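agent> Task received from the user: take the single chain below, predict its 3D structure, and emit structure tokens. No templates, no multimer pairing.
agent> Plan: (1) validate residues, (2) run structure prediction, (3) serialize to tokens, (4) report one or two observations.
agent> Step 1 OK, no nonstandard residues flagged.
tool_call: predict_structure(input=
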Amino acid sequence: MTQLDAINRRILRELTRDARISNIDLAARAGLSPSACLRRVQEMERTGVIRGYRAVLDPVQMGVGFVAYVTVGLSSHTKAAQEAFERAMARAPEVRECHNITGSVEYLLRVEAVDLAAYKHFHTEVLGVVPQVHALTTYVVMDSPKDERA
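)
tool_result: status=success, residues=150
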């Protein structure tokens, strides 16, 4: 496991802000030589601390005007029921995140749609026909004053 000392954390913070930063600029911000900085980044990639790099997309430019979090309770608490539900969610492009959680329900979904009508279609025609689904609660996102997902 890679040691996450203060320098590695600084590197990760900078890469989270801008994954396209040049190694020279990253090294300067981390207080390292470019070669030492590159070695640290490569080690964190090799050990899986850094699993990949992503583009941060503008939802409006992508046609997403509606975002909701949906809690899902299953009718059966078996491994087979969970696997079937997860397969159904993997096929649904509106589901951007699917988390198996603890508490009174089994799953938390992040759902993105063009608008409320598109979400209603997803709710009825996708979630509503999954046989394992017992209960749904939708939380509509009105604003995201802090969102550090990349």
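agent> Step 4: summary for the user.
Residues 66-140 form a domain with the Alpha-Beta Plaits fold (CATH 3.30.70.920).
agent> Done.
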